[in-house]
Specification:
This protein is mainly α. It has 2 domains: about 170 residues, UbiA prenyltransferase (Tetracycline Repressor, domain 2); about 130 residues. Helix content is about 75%, strand content about 0%. The termini are far apart.
Length: about 300
């Protein structure tokens, strides 16, 4: 059983918290319907993402067996057969579809219009389906192309954000959409930096497209995306629509936490050279956790208290 759990990578489900973005930035954390819809949508993407992890490991078996770390993955190590992996992938897809269907009775509980409830379910289902289709093409072919690979990973997070907005009926700010794309693009480049370092040390590229990256390019890409991400966040906090929405002009103060968080992540990537697993960084690095928690508390206090 533990090998099946490792294959679906539940630790990676933290990425799907982006579906709560519209609720947080829309000031609807105290809205029971919005939170419930976001929670179910979270599971839609957890199961959908796990199905893609299964497919990715099925396709990458030859490369994983040559990798010093990935060779211990369930399929590469032989702990899970290809047939079992395909079955688990289909199960995850089925569970994701069930969660989409579960949205309909949820809207009914809160007295939503049947037509609008159906529209919301279909919209979330369509985004999730597109997410799966996009990631299948990514696993099969597109991840072989440098720059395109990181852009598609970042766009996957935008789809999570969009699904959260559709599920909760919250209109997304253009700055939030841009910031989500840029932030995850920044983290994706930082992850590729780890691959480049390993390639330079061993002479063996961890991915086929790693040969199209080098440290000079990666470092510049990280710097650019981090800078533009910060600018987008500041533009969001001082935009007239946001000030009017929350009736507060002090949201810009949270920008300091975003800046410190970005600097810490760059330090992890460039100085400590440990950015190969963004999820592990978030779950293990106390500095990052403290900054995120401080940002969240400050954001909530400004919106709901002051």
């Amino acid at each position: 059983m533990k090998h099946y759990i490792r294959l679906i990578r539940p630790t990676q489900w933290i990425k799907n918290l982006f579906v709560f973005g519209p609720v947080i930035f829309g000031g609807r954390l105290l809205d029971a319907q919005a939170m419930s819809a976001a929670f179910i949508t979270f599971w839609v993407f957890c199961f959908a993402a796990s199905s893609i992890y299964c497919l990715n490991d099925i396709i990458d078996v030859p490369d994983d067996r040559r990798h010093p770390v990935k060779c211990t993955r369930p399929i590469a190590s032989g702990a899970v057969s290809l047939r079992q992996a395909y079955a688990l992938m289909l199960l995850m897809l089925a569970l994701s579809a069930c969660c989409v269907v579960a949205l309909a009775p949820l809207y009914g509980m809160f007295g939503s219009c049947p037509l609008s409830s159906l529209r919301s379910c279909l919209s979330v289902g369509a985004v999730a389906l597109f997410y799966v289709a996009l990631n299948i093409t990514y696993c099969v072919k597109l991840k072989q192309y440098a720059i395109i690979d990181v852009c598609l990973v970042a766009f996957g997070f935008v789809l999570r954000l969009m699904a959260g907005g559709l599920a909760t009926g919250i209109t997304l700010s253009k700055w939030i959409v841009l910031m989500t794309f840029l932030l995850t693009l920044f983290m994706s480049f930082a992850k590729r930096r780890d691959d480049v370092i390993r390639m330079e040390a061993t002479g063996e590229p961890p991915r086929k497209n790693t040969i199209h990256y080098n440290l000079t390019f990666i470092n510049q890409a990280i710097t650019i995306t981090a800078a533009v991400t910060l600018v987008c966040y500041i533009m969001y906090t001082i935009s007239p629509e946001v000030i009017a929405q929350f009736g507060n002009e002090n949201l810009y103060l949270t920008s300091m936490f975003v800046l410190v968080g970005l600097l810490r992540y760059i330090q992890i990537a460039v100085v400590e050279k440990k950015s190969g697993n963004p999820t592990k960084v978030i779950l293990k690095d106390r500095f990052v956790q403290l900054v995120v928690a401080a940002w969240f508390v400050a954001f909530i206090l400004i919106i709901y208290v002051f």
